[in-house]
Amino acid sequence: MSGSAVRARRVSPPRPLAKARGLGESGWGWLFAVPAVMLIGGFVLYPVLNTVLFSFTDFNGLTAANFVGLEQYGRLAGDSVFHRTLLNSGLITAVATVLLVCLPLPVAYWIHRGIPFRRFFRAVLYLPVVVPIIVSSVAWKWLLDEGGLVNYVLVTTGLTSGPVSWLSDPALAIWTVTGVIVWRAFGIYLLIYLAGLATMPDDQLEAAAIDGAGHVRTFGSIVVPHLRGSIVLSSVIAFVAAMRMFDEIYVLTGGGPANASKNTAYYIWESAFSYFKFGYSSAMAVVLLALVLGLVLLGLRLAGRSR
């Protein structure tokens, strides 16, 4: 067989599968993303859109919903309990976010520098995260009861003249709940900072030590700038989590006493499942969603400008 005949019978190389079927790389990317998009649409977007639609009705879960326009939003404007829950949500969120962003940062640096028993401290600080929220909240409710262990220690040691009403005093209840929230979530933000510190080159810390920089100066001049992305991430996560906090309030105080610790998320649940005001609770949920989304976007924009 001649060489020209062999060349004539050569088969052209097959085209890539994507091109053979008329799809580019981006097309196949979108095709593989379809299952995730369907899940997000079914479990996130659809409930959100349904909530927005319910907010314009008087739906109570028992009878047919009637369109009432902006009536539910008008009721919110005159609802003093809703205003109180917004204030409580703001207080809980502000304090919890600041503590959860700031406190784990030096602790993470302390552990990263190789302290003795670092694995032990890391495990102990993360332990509250893996304990079910209901279990830890019930345990704290027993500990903080007027006849509980905390008051027993305070009275026995003479630090207080009598038991403290941690959960039934309107002036203390909201801060007690906030403290439990911070205690439980501390380990999450500790791990975020430890992951950020793991990417820091050791030569930066060694150079600072050679230059005679102490721990405080090294922390402020090298560690904090390096962890700026982790700080922004922690701030967003802590803010959103605190605004939607429910479990601890439900178990510890039930929103009381006299709405002193009731936040908006708890009020939404109460209106929907205790009083069957699904339309009204949907309006509150829409307002809360808009508020959280707006503040998060504003925070991210300000953080981007500061870089």
From TrEMBL:
The keyword Transport applies. The chain crosses the membrane at residues 28-49, 91-111, 123-143, 172-195, 227-246, 278-300. This is Putative chitobiose transport system permease protein. Residues 86-299 form the ABC transmembrane type-1 domain. It comes from Nonomuraea wenchangensis. The keyword Amino-acid biosynthesis does not apply. Pfam families: BPD_transp_1. It is found in: Cell membrane. PROSITE patterns: ABC_TM1 (PS50928). It comes from the Bacteria. One of its GO terms (cellular component) is plasma membrane.
